[in-house]
Every structure is written in structure tokens, then in C-alpha cells.
Amino acid sequence: MAGTILEVKGLKVYFPVKRGILFKKTVAEVKAVDEVSFAVNDGETVGLVGESGCGKTTTGRAILKLIEPTAGEILYKGKDIAKYTQKEMLPLRREMQMVFQDPYASLNPRMSVMDIITDPLVEHKIITKHEKEERSKVLLETVGMNPRYMNRFPHEFSGGQRQRIGIARSIALNPKLLICDEPIAALDVSIQAQVINLFQDIQEKFGLSYLFIAHDLSVVRHISDRIIVMYIGKVVEIAEKRELFKNPLHPYTQVLLSSIPTPDPKRERERKRIELEGEIPSPLNKPKGCPFSSRCPYAMDRCREEEPNPVHLDGNHIVSCHLYQK
Ligand code: SF4
After folding, report:
1. Measuring from each residue's beta carbon to the nearest atom of ligand 1, which residues come in under 6 Å?
2. What percent of the chain stands above pLDDT 90?
3. Which of 229, 252, 293 gets mutated to test ligand 1 (max ligand atoms within 8 A of its CB)?
4. How far apart are CA 6 and CA 211, in angstroms?
5. Mutational test site, ligand 1, from 296, 301, 302, 326, max ligand atoms within 8 Å of CB
């Protein structure tokens, strides 16, 4: 039976808002991630979706300790790394890697592809400088690129190829967990599917687990086993992919699903898009009670007063909404 590679319990990331002389006085807190809990199993892909600003990227960065969590537990292979120092994190950096949204910004323009993808291996003393060429060849072939390109520089490649180079760098250290932060959002629609397929091939080959962050359910639909939906710092629903698409329970998930076009013209004509009123609230000024209450078509008095707790339903389906609370 598959084990759990990552368990996040009650994760909070709060950013102080400072004012006054030299910005020394904390006047408020932005609760970017607030009591977020979920797990990723070995070899599983968990999609993490929500509008921009909902805290999904901050969650990913906090798990890798690129941002210091305010509270909560981050259990990697059963060990709580939430309070690990950067030094204690070093050996784990090999096992937990991030794939970034903008492959161009994340690749050093002055480094050749060979240096970009093999320098981490030299730094960790896994290979010597003399072995860089051979390892680059293997890595580039793994991501579907011609090894002849290893001496070229990032600007010589298309967005899709640059993301392949970014993926080659991320898998160079043979990680166990990849946190993919909107890795196809900056790519042309025509090549998004190819990069998704590459992620799936690599997962199969190396037995990786993915936390796959996206702002759109249609992106995570093909790749995910389970899906987490976030709204202004909170998890509102978690379910197996099939279950979520067949039986979305949270009103916000229903809105996200209704915005996905279907390829069948007849069904597309019949598709009823649920339009939301108002803008996503600022995390500095969240509504009282349920975070979705200012936009939810089903909001009741209780929703504006009391925050819903997660309700665990049959089939590992979790939803935070008063409509399902007894
Ligand atoms: Fe809507 Fe109330 Fe459910 Fe929040 S708790 S999603 S406001 S029905």
C-alpha cells in the first residue's frame, strides 16, 4: 500500500503589514495561508487550484521552506520539517524540488544548459565536473530534448523547451516530491499538453509524487489523482478527481467547474456558467464567517457569522461549507 510522502497539518503563513517610521510597526496581518491541511501519497499527483492570490503558491513555497511558515506541521516522510533550519533542510533539498511557472526567469541566462542542469549535481558532489556532459545527455533525453543543445543558452529556446530544461534541472537530483507551480501557465496552449505528458512520463519512470499548482481546474484535470480547491487562504474542498468533477459540493468549486468549456458543441451550448458577483476579497479584509460568504449564491446568516469546519464525507470527500454541516 502506498505511504504518505507529505502531510501538511494546520499550516499558516501570515505576513505582517508594517507602517510607521522605517516600517517597524505591525498594523495588520495578511493570512495568506490559514489552517491548511492535506496529504500527498507516494506516487500520487495532487492538484492545488484556486484564483491567483488564494495562497496556493505560498503553500508550495512554505512546504519547501522557501518561505518560513507561521504555524502548523509539514511532515515529510513522517518528520516535521516546519521548524527545520536552512542547514537542516539541505539534505532534503535533493528530495523536494520545485518547478517554476516562468521557465525563463528561473534559468540563469548566462549559464549553458549543461551547467544549469548539472551544477546541482556537482554542488551535491554526486558527479564530478568531467561527468557533466554525460549526465546532461541523459537528462536532456529524459525530457525529450536533443543532447546537442547542451552548450546553448536559455534565450535560444522556445518557452516549451525552456520549461523542459527547468524540468531536467528539477529531476537531476533524483527527487521524490516535485512541487510544480503553474508550470504550464506561461506556455502556448498548443504545447501545454506536451509538457503535461512529459510530467506524467517522468512520474511513471521515477515514481515521483507531485503537488501540481494551477489556477484552472481544466489544467489539473488530466494529471491529478486528487484535487484540493483553495479560496483566499483556505482549503474549501478536497476529493478524488473523478468524484470532484462528478459531484462538486462546495459552491466555489461549482463555479470553477462551470467555467470549463467542453469540447462537445451540444454540451457546450447547454453549459450553464455560474457568474460570481463581486471581486475576490483582499486577504487583508476577509469576510467574517465563511471566506466565500461575500460571493456565495447560497450564503445564509450563519455563513456570515461562523466559519465552517471541514466535513469528512464518504469516499474521502472533504468540504468546508455549512450546507453539509449537521
Ligand atoms: Fe456558501 Fe455558506 Fe457554504 Fe460558505 S458556508 S460556501 S457562504 S453556503
Report:
1. 250-251, 290, 292-293, 296, 298-300, 303, 308, 321-323
2. 74
3. 293
4. 10
5. 296
- pLDDT per position as a tens digit, 129-159: 899 999 999 999 999 999 999 999 999 999 9
Name the CATH topology of 4-321.
Rossmann fold (3.40.50)
Largest pairwise CA distance in the chain:
68
Residue 110: the pLDDT is: 94
Domain ranges within the chain, ordered by starting residue: 4-321
Cell of 64: 519547501
Nearest CA to ligand 1 atom 6: 321
**Which range, 33-47, 254-268, 277-291, has the best average confidence (pLDDT)?**
33-47
**Measured in angstroms, how far is the CA atom of residue 298 from the centroid of ligand 1?**
6
Measured between alpha carbons, how far is residue 112 from residues 148, 232, 315 in Å?
12, 39, 48
**Percent of the chain having pLDDT more than 70?**
99
Q: How far apart are CA 54 and CA 57, in angstroms?
A: 8
